[in-house]
Amino acid sequence: MKIALKYLMVLLAFMVLTACEKMQSLTESEQVERTIRQEVRRDLRALNTLTDAADATEYDGFAWRRGERLQIRQRQDGELVLLEQAEAPEIIATAVAQKIPSFSLVRYQQGWLVVFTTYVNPQCQVVYAYAYRGVLADTPLCSSEVFTEQANGQCQSPIQDQWQVFKEWFFAESMLEEGNPACVQSAAEFAGIKNSNSAK
Asked: Signal sequence span per UniProt (predicted)?
């Protein structure tokens, strides 16, 4: 009986260790995407109400943190310009009513980006990660291949009908100029892909 119990305990420990080895921790990209998905699902009603309020204005961008002045931007010649005299008290009132302590919204195409975070991935790309309310018809689905095939680009991952995880990335030229080894390697790989595509 004791031998059988010891054998069973050893077998159980082996199974747990094997399962742990198979479970890999999430990459930063996967963690960011999971966080955005969770936040949108948790605050869907609040985010819909806030973006509806923003959409009813003539402005193209808002940034606010409780206790600070609302920053309002409008697109001029393709650039978001901070407006010094503009006011939109309905946006703050909506955020307060929906218990949103801070936000950054940008009008993009036919919808709104909710800014979440920025990070540098292993391919030496600066990635801007957003939740997007709207439909992005010509934007490919996110995958690890999309990042390795394009130095700069955009992709999306649906959360539900009206909301997507939207990522936009640019190769970190400044890190390449500093001689970052990962960036040097990635630059060579992207150049190889570009040359290969040109030869087709």
From this structure: 1-19
DSSP 160: S
Strands 71-76 and 61-65: antiparallel
Write the pLDDT tens digit of every residue in 67-119.
Answer: 999 999 999 998 999 999 999 999 999 999 999 999 999 999 999 999 999 99
Query: On the CB side of 102, how many CA atoms lie within 13 Å of its CA?
Result: 7
SS3 content of the chain, % helix, strand, coil (to 5): 45, 30, 30
Compute and round to an integer the Cα radius of gyration of the chain. 23
Q: Are 171 and 151 in contact (CB under 8 A)?
A: yes
**66 contacts: CB under 8 Å, gap ≥ 6:** 101, 102
């890999």: which residue's tokens? 24
Contact status, residue 127 vs residue 34, Cβ threshold 8 Å = no
In one-letter notation, the amino acid at residue 71 is Q
| pTM of full prediction above 0.85 | no
Q: Is residue 66 a contact partner of residue 101, using CB atoms and an 8 Å limit?
A: yes
